[in-house]
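pasting LysR family transcriptional regulator for the record, 308 residues
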Amino acid sequence: MTLQQLHYIIEIAKSGSITAAAERLFISQPSLSKAVKEMEQELGILILKRSRHGIAFTAQGLELLSYAYRVTEQMDGLYSHFLGEEETSSLALSISSQHYMFPTDALQQMITSLDESITSYAITLREGYTSEVIEDVLTQRSQIGILYLSHGNERFLTRLFHQKGIIFTPLGEYTPQIYIRKGHPLSSRTSVSIHELKKYPYIQYDQRSDSEQYSEEIVFADKVSTKQIFVTDRSGMLSVIRTTDAFNIGTGCICPDMVGEDIISIPISGCFDTMTIGRIHLRNAILDEAVQQYIACLDEALRRCHPV
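structre below
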C-alpha cells in the first residue's frame, strides 16, 4: 500500500464519488477504481459499496479512512517539521456542527487569540444536519462534531455512537427555550407554555429524510403548531424570526454580537426534556493542540451566549 493510495481514499470521501474524486486528482476514473480494488485485494476487505445511488464506505472502509487521515497528517507533520522554515508554525482544524451560533463565536475568539508564531492555518467550520455531523466525524472530514442529546434521542444516538466508536463529551445542559423577535406578542413573558405557542408559526430546520431521532430541535409528543416553516440554513431562520411572529426552539444560547439585540429567548415552562450540548470525536482520534484550543474557546462561548 502506498501513501498515494491513502490520499485517493481521502479524496473519494471528500468528493462523495469516484468520478468527482478522479477529476480532482487529475486521473482517470478507471485508474482510481483500479487503485481502490488493489487496496481491497491487498487488505482483504471491501472498502466501498456500490449501488444505483452511488458509493458508500463500508464499516471496514471507514476504519481504513480513519487510519488514512492519521497517516497522511503524520506525514504532513514530518515534512513540515524537517523541511519547513524555522520558527514558523501551521495549524489545521475542522469542525462540523448542528445549526448553532456559539461554535462560530468560539471560532472567532480562537482566531483572534492565535499566537503570532502561527504563520499559516486552514480552518473549516461546517453547519449541517445531525446525520451529516456524525458522518463527517466518522470519515474524519472533521476532527470533532457538535450536537445535542435529549431524553427523546439519547438512547438512539448513544447506541449509534457505541456502534460507530464515537465518544460524546457533554459541554452543558439546557432547558429548551423559544427564539422570537423583540416585538413578538410573547416577548414580555418570563416563560411560555407549549399550548401558548400553537397559534404561532413554528420555524425549524428541514431534516430531509432523517428520522425524528436526528432532529435539531426537541421533539414534543403533541404538535407544537399547525403552522410550520422549514428552512435549511441559519440565516434564513433568523430572517423569518425577525420579520414575523414565527418562533424556533433551542438551547437559548444567543450570541448578541452575531444576531443583534432584536432576537430574544424565553424558557418553555413545563418542559420535562433537556438539551445536553456536547462534542463528538472518534474513540481513537488524537485531539491535537488546535482542537484543544478550540474546545476551550467553545466552553467560553457557551458561558457568554447563554443568559444567566
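The mean pLDDT is 88.
The chain has three domains: 3-63, 80-168+276-305, 174-275.
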